[in-house]
Amino acid sequence: MSTTTVSKLATALKLSSEKLILQLNEAGIDVADKDDVVSNDQKLLLLNHLRGSHGTKSTASSAPKKLTINRRSQSELKLSGSFGRSRTVTVEVRKKRTYLKKETLIDQAKEELEEQKKLEQEKLKQIEEEIQNQKLESAPTEITDKDQPKISVTDEKLKDTSHKKDKGLKKKKRKNQVDEDPYLIKELHVKGKVKKRKKRKIRRSLSSAILDQAHTFEKPTSPVVKEVMIPEAITPQELAQKLSMKVNEVVTSMMNLGVIATANDNLDQETAILIVQEIGHKAVPMDERTVEDTLFDDEDNTYEKVDRPPVVTIMGHVDHGKTSLLDYIRNSKVVDKEAGGITQHIGAYSIEHKSHSITFLDTPGHAAFSNMRARGANVTDIIILVVAANDGVKPQTVESIEHARASDVPIIVAINKIDMPESDIEKVRNEMIVNEIVPDDLGGDCLFVNVSAKTGDGIENLLETIVLQSEILDLKASKEGRAVGVVIESGIESGKGAVATILITEGRLNKGDLIIAGEQFGKARILMNENNKELNFVTPSMPVRVFGLSSTPNAGDEIRVVRNEKQGKEISTLRKDRNRVSKLNDQKILKMKNFMEQSMDSSKKTISLIVKADVQGSVEAIRDSLLKLSTDEVEVDIISSGVGGISESDINLAT
């Protein structure tokens, strides 16, 4: 035990030795001189004495009641890693312990016992008050007529006080009830309890029933008819989900209808509608509002509409002088450039006649190019039907008449080759009347003009007739806003890539605009007219060749200007996906058809072909002509077709 002298302690406390000796004596420590020794226990007694004299608690009372000890221990752990390497991880363990004095625990237990006793006493008092109130309510009293109002007043007061007390003591059990009239009390008590029990039982039974029925399936009393929206392409798996059925049931219904497909095969809209109706539900074709629909709906051209040049299509039988007639009008020699002197492409040209612009479309007259003629009739305002005076009406002439009627377009009949000695104009007029094309001088609605593409006779009269007919039609279109047009022809030019001949029907196409034509998207890098002259912009009824598309679009596709590259690519992707699904469906139908035919007749041979041409229209004509060559013994199968030269992938596909 360490000790010190009084003088040293006084120096440490910054007190005089005399004052410290006095304080030690007051604390009960016998010290006389400054050299006397003071122990640690004596120092503690002095400290408690000083605290007591200054009004603070002693060290014993101020000692901490709760002690918390935190311990930490660290260790290292080696872990093996990849490639034979090991790494060391430091692990730290933290422990925390709390110690309480026994005195504090005893005090807490005493306080809890006292609180419990107080609560029990309060409960007993409340029960006694309830018993007394019930005695007062059930006690029999003899009432006279004079005292009746007084007693009734007191009864009402007692009832009011009892109700007020009952409100504060709801849902508590009543025990040890003793009365003068036990029968009445018992009856009232039992009656009240029975009501409560019944209510509780009913509530419990209802809640349990609700819980039991929460996840149960109720069988419908009548058949449920669902209304199912059917998109353009849907798989049996998706159809089963919409009908809330198993896929096997849908596939079984398909087999009953003769449709063989797996759960992930695509079905076209018509087949899916038949399957849904076979199952017993209602099918509604879905009107798919794609991004392109919403985009183009917002682009209604509200600009002022002005007069536009007429679009005139020259149609007729092969070698009746259509292109020669147009050459004389344009003062050019296009026939010499065509293979065999027969037009194989749709040519678009624009001329000026007495301050009037006229756009001409020259279509092939050969039987194989019927699709081209139909395309020309769909985009035209006036049709010039060329008939040779020495040859009369031929099959392609009749076909051109049918295209004109289908498009509801006025017809101007140009009787060509009147300079030839064997020409017979009256014969041609009579043959046209047989085909319901009546001249205007005989009360009909068709204008007849006699012309000669060789000498130029009647050409001026023909142009005047076209201008007159266009003024009657009152053709108008807006020359501002985003351009809308039609692809007339498309192909690939060496060194320039994909090129599309288009005809603008509305709006204004500027050089550098972002355009989309069918599946193809690109930028109009070059706008070139029929004379190979570059243009900065194009207005309605002006034919132009556009360079800059990603690939050759299909002839007849609509061409539009889009806002930005993102929208154009999104629309292009949607159209490609849609066409891909339709092609897969067509291939599946063909494969199934071929399988059935091969199983019936194994001797039938198939010739597979790859068709390549310079323009899209020629590809269509060749494909249609080859497919018509199929017979009962030999079938032509075109596995691929396109525009451009033969590539390595085509050779690999053929082999």
UniProtKB/TrEMBL annotation:
Q: Which segments of the protein form a coiled coil according to its record?
A: none
Please give an example of a GO cellular component term from this record.
cytosol
Q: Bias regions of kind Basic residues — which residues?
A: 164-175
Which PROSITE patterns did the record assign? G_TR_2 (PS51722)
Stretches for region Disordered: 132-177
Location of the Tr-type G domain: 307-474
Please give the CDD domains that the UniProt record associates with this protein: IF2_eIF5B, IF2_mtIF2_II
Keywords, ordered alphabetically: Cytoplasm, GTP-binding, Initiation factor, Nucleotide-binding, Protein biosynthesis
Q: Gene3D superfamilies from the xrefs? A: P-loop containing nucleotide triphosphate hydrolases (3.40.50.300), Putative DNA-binding domain, N-terminal subdomain of bacterial translation initiation factor IF2 (3.30.56.50), Translation factors (2.40.30.10), Translation initiation factor IF- 2, domain 3 (3.40.50.10050)
Q: Please list the residue ranges that the record marks as compositionally biased, kind Basic and acidic residues.
A: 143-163
Q: What are this entry's molecular-function GO terms? A: GTP binding; GTPase activity; translation initiation factor activity
Q: Which family does it belong to?
A: Belongs to the TRAFAC class translation factor GTPase superfamily. Classic translation factor GTPase family. IF-2 subfamily.
Question: What NCBIfam families is this protein classified in?
Answer: IF-2, small_GTP
Output this protein's name. Tr-type G domain-containing protein
